[in-house]
Amino acid sequence: MTMLRTLIWFAVAAVAMLGAVWLAERPGNVIVEWRGWRLDTSVGVLLVGVVFLILLGVALWLLYRWIVGAPGAFLEGWGESRRRRGYRELTQGLAAVAAGDGAEAQRHARKAEQLLSEPALTLLLSAQAAQLNGDRDGANRAFKAMLEDEQMAFLGLRGLIAQSLRDGNQAQALDYAERAFALKPQTPWVVHSLFDMQAQLRQWHAAQDTLDAGMRRKVVSADRGRTLRALLLVERSRAAEHDGHDADALGLAREAFGLAPERIAVTSRLAALQIKAGDRKRATKTLERGWTLAPHPDLAALYLEASGESDPLKRVSVMQRLAARKPDDMESHLALAQATLEAGLWGEARRHLEAAGGSNPPVRVCRMMAELEERAAADPAKVRDWLARAAEAPADKAWRCTACGAHHEAWHSVCESCGAFGTLHWRAPGTYGQILPPGSAPRPAIGMTAMNTVSGG
Which pTM was predicted? Predict the structure, then answer.
């Protein structure tokens, strides 16, 4: 490219030189008379003069343009400098937020606000800096100011949802979540948050509408939506029974069982209502199907209740029919061990407990073995030995939240620790994340996880 330009300039210079030589050989004369003035010169001198006048005119025009445009150029350069400094402060402020330095972030936020005329960017930094410093009022003011900007409104609503949840104001958080859902109903965290908040406030119909909207927009998969819908129907069934509408309660429970028979809460709900209605045969079939999919002690207790047997030996036969649905499962062995223990069949009880505990029996097996030794042989040493093993044995399965790991004594549709819906499962500790002890302080969250953890019992 450089070589081509050199050749072009060389060609232009050669043409100019040839032109000059040609004019020198043919000087000619030019006579100009104007208002008493007379000019005698050659053609070459005249051409040089014309070129000079053209160049002088261009120079004067450029000087005029510079003089006229200088103030505007100065102001523009000064404004550009302010923007550069403002963006530098904004960048440093965001870095301070990432480092967790609230005071430094707030200092840069103030400078950025002074230098930049773009409140959308500086408001976000101001809100984050206020959050780091624990300034709830300042953060709320910044997030609410974002609502006035169409492009920042959604982000402001998310911040206000988080603030409201931290303050324990669920009603206010729900209002903001509904506004966010109206703006962007296809955003996953909006659907999840709104769904869980509606469930926490027991707004089952509204939660169902939100779930349906999430499924239509593919935010919730069909399989997860099916399970969550079943659990919503369980809660609606409870509400109907509480209001004295037993027929509606039974119909809702039956619909829930048709959607998710693998969920223990769904099976036990339908079976309990069938027993209450006097339909023990249907309750037995419901429990047998549920046991095949997900055995649980509550189902075993309901099965015995549905049988109507009070004789201990006959109750063993009843439990054998249920356990035969899943004979190798630990819960089947434990259910049979309990039944045989109550019937005084010590050998059978020991056999099932050994099968359930294996080489490293959990707490429940150890305690049942201690009870067996006490009732069968009345051997205090063996009882103490099993109780000592129970103190160091692996923890039993229990209702644990797959979102936060919190332990619950009974099943609830909404986790009492993190507020997620449908996340309690019958699991051993360590299956899903860290397990929190009962009564642990709830952790505030906006990203609800119910729709991401809906598998199993």
Answer: 0.69
* pLDDT 10s digits, 285-336: 999 999 999 999 999 999 999 999 999 999 999 999 999 999 999 999 999 9
pLDDT tens readout for residues 17-26: 777 666 666 6
What are the pLDDT digits (tens) for 367-391?
Answer: 999 999 998 877 789 999 999 999 9
C-alpha 92/C-alpha 104 separation (Å) is 9
Would residue 422 be called left, alpha or beta, if left means φ above 0 and alpha means ψ between -120 and 50 degrees?
Answer: left
Of 93, 95, 99, the residue nearest 123 (C-alpha): 93
How far is residue 202's CA from residue 361's CA, in Å, rounded to a whole number? 40
